[in-house]
Write a structure and sequence with these properties.
Elements lengths: L1 E12 L5 E13 L2 H11 L9 E7 L20 E6 L3
Antiparallel strand pairs: 1-2, 1-3, 3-4
Length: 89
Amino acid sequence: MNDYRVSFYKNLLNSDGHNFKCLQRQIDVQSDDPSQALILAEQKIRHERLNIDCAEVAYLPVEPHGCDHRSRPCARGALPAVAMSNFSV
């Protein structure tokens, strides 16, 4: 099993009229692959009233120096996305 962080976003326009993704919710899950991670995260938020347009699944690597990615982010920067999904509203 691997650890994944699933981020759910709403697409919005800023004051200049440019699109940006606004984070609605993040959930850490354990699964065998990114597709299953997305399904598990969707099941966890099923009853929440969120306006979600897309989701991003990122693999959370095991840190040998003991950084716990579930409690706080490491100082190494953003994690690579391994899967994206669009939601129809």
